[in-house]
Amino acid sequence: MAFVFVSLIGATAIVFALSRMAGDPILLYAKPYGYGDTEEYLNNLRAHLGLDQPLVVQYVKWVWQLAQGDLGLTLLSRRPVIDVIGEKIWNTFQLAFTGWLFATVLGVPLGVLSAVKRGTFWDYIGRGFALFGQALPAFWVGVMLVLVFSVTWELLPTAFKAPPSVSDDYVHWNPWGFYPEYFILPTITIGWGAAAGYLRITRSAMLEVMDSEFVKLARAKGASTSSVIWKHAFKNALIPPLTVSALLLAGLMNGAVVAEVVFAWPGLGRIALVEAVNNNDFPLLTGAIFIFTIIYLVMNFVADMLYAWADPRIRYS
Asked: Cβ of 79: how many Cβ atoms within 10 Å?
């Protein structure tokens, strides 16, 4: 917990420093009111926003506002940043979770299969998938999926999270607004590279454990092949995939920006990062970065807690 607290303070310091390195913040806040503002008006606005105080005082006040959930107002719409993030983060989490689930279900079993069948046809298939999965960029995969499955074969929708208009029967059948056909292509786009990473890490961990003495002893005692693989080898090889798993879910929430842009997904990455950068909406940008930082720290803490479950030798005092 101490590490999480220190990391959070460091993240806030970096974000605050970047906001001041970009230039005089008053120029950003004055833009919505037009050009040609007098120096007196800018000084009054600077005093109203607290930008005339020392940087240390500004930082402490900003951190105090963060602790109260106040991330400021967006520069264009003048809406609370926390409201904008709250509206979009659930869409990003849905896409990131489905991508993480796809990567886990596909990558981990393929990694185990590749390690168990080392040097065989299945091993070469797995290693080839890992090679192409990490070599092909996500935006290219997304465009090709749209070209093949949406444009050429017309099997799946090209964009959005839900149809623009749906029938009453469809709404009654699907009251939560979850339309699987709209998730397939974005999920594969963000989960493709993650599955390849899972495969490589799981394969390496399994190969290391499979060559250990306790696995050889289990085989010598007559344990079945499935017992050796899943009970003795796989559980002891879980720590590297677990580390990647927790951080990967957090990373997909941040890395889903590519899929959100390609598929016009109404998520936090496209709205709060891409559009915020294009519009110089710095409060929205810093708020989104701060939320992503918290997600990373929380998932890192979850990964540490899972270590003790995977390896009984690890204990936290």
From this structure: 12
CA distance 57 to 188: 47
**Torsions phi, psi for 145 (to 5 deg):** -65, -40
Tokens in use for 168?
């009453």
Looking at 22-68, list the stretches that DSSP marks H as alpha helix, in order from N- to C-terminal side: 25-30, 39-48, 55-67
- Which residue stretches of the chain have pLDDT < 70? 1-2, 19, 22-38, 45, 48-49, 164-178, 255, 272, 280, 307-317
pTM, two decimals, is 0.78
User: SS3 for 122?
Assistant: helix
Tokens read off for 58: 């500004």
Cβ atoms of 109 and 117 closer than 8 Å = no
| Residue 94, H or E segment | helix 81-116
pLDDT tens for each residue of 41-61: 777 767 766 777 787 888 888
Q: Which residue has the tokens 């999920």?
A: 187
Q: Which two tokens stand for residue 60?
A: 């402490």
Task: Report whether 263 contacts 160 (CB < 8 A).
Answer: yes
**Contact indicator for 223, 176 with CB cutoff of 8 Å:** no
Rounded distance, CA 10 to CA 17, Å? 10
